Amino acid sequence: IIVANTFVIALEAVFMQNAEIKDLCDFLESIFAAIYVLEITVRVREQGCEHFFIGPDWTWNWFDTVITATGVADAIMEILGLAGVGISAARLFRMLRILRLFR
User: Fold this and answer.
1) CA 68 centroid distance within chain
2) Pick from 52, 39, 13, 24: which is nearest to 97 by CA?
3) Taking the C-alpha atoms of 94, 15, 26 and 83 in order, what is their torsion angle to the nearest 10 degrees?
4) What's the average model confidence in pLDDT over 10-32?
């Protein structure tokens, strides 16, 4: 999922002038945001809120939560028409999610 999301962000950067591809990328970004929200929700339910946010993996859990919240905020701004032109800072920030692969 992480690699596919990074690929979509990179694809959008290359083809941002193409409205059809941008619309597809925006749709896929919304799907990825929903998947990440679901993932965090499941992890919090399994581990418990306290263990998730202050347990042994608290740094990675907070990292995931911030990145996911940024993605959700970006998706909402896109839906409301408040997003800027080109790749937003939120999308670039979410590319950091690939760091999870090295944990």
Assistant:
1) 5
2) 39
3) 80
4) 82
